[in-house]
Amino acid sequence: MDKSWINILNRLDPLYENGAKEFLHFASLDRPDASTILCPCRKCRNMKFVRKDLIVEHIVVDGFLTSYTSWIYHGEELFSSKLVNQLDKGDEMQDMLPEAFGIPPTSNFVDMDTSAEGFDGSNQHNMGFDKKTEEFFSLLKEVERELYPGSKYSLLSFLVCLLHLKCLNGWSNKSFSILLELLKDVLPE
């Protein structure tokens, strides 16, 4: 759906009003039986339920909340099905780590015995691993660790998704840190 109308400064522009009507149509699909929906105008800020027949008026008079680009309160999915499919296909973090450290990907070591002493980090110094390689194997373990038992996210992929949301939505560092503290308290260790 085209959301460019949100940034039109002249709210009397027919494109702006048509955009507001399209928004109402979209939001009504999510709650067809409801007589009210959360109002995304600058005054209500998705905090008040307003009758559907007044939504367009609110948006035109007060303006649409320009930071509200993912209409999650009105039926839009937070993560697109395309992103979910990418997550389901496998975690590509393992491919990024070797590249970041300048180490050949583990897929190049076809006959490598991963159960050999030292691979898990127990005897790395005897095998001649330098500090960067030790750090790489430590990060590799972290990539494979589930966020919590049964989760489809690894710790690293979850943090990358959170940072992506932070950037997309303009969260401040302070608000992001507070969110991380809350998640730390809520999620099992």
UniProtKB/TrEMBL annotation:
<dbReference type="Pfam" id="PF13963">
    <property type="entry name" value="Transpos_assoc"/>
</dbReference>
<feature type="domain" description="Transposase-associated">
    <location>
        <begin position="3"/>
        <end position="76"/>
    </location>
</feature>
<dbReference type="InterPro" id="IPR029480">
    <property type="entry name" value="Transpos_assoc"/>
</dbReference>
<protein>
    <recommendedName>
        <fullName>Transposase-associated domain-containing protein</fullName>
    </recommendedName>
</protein>
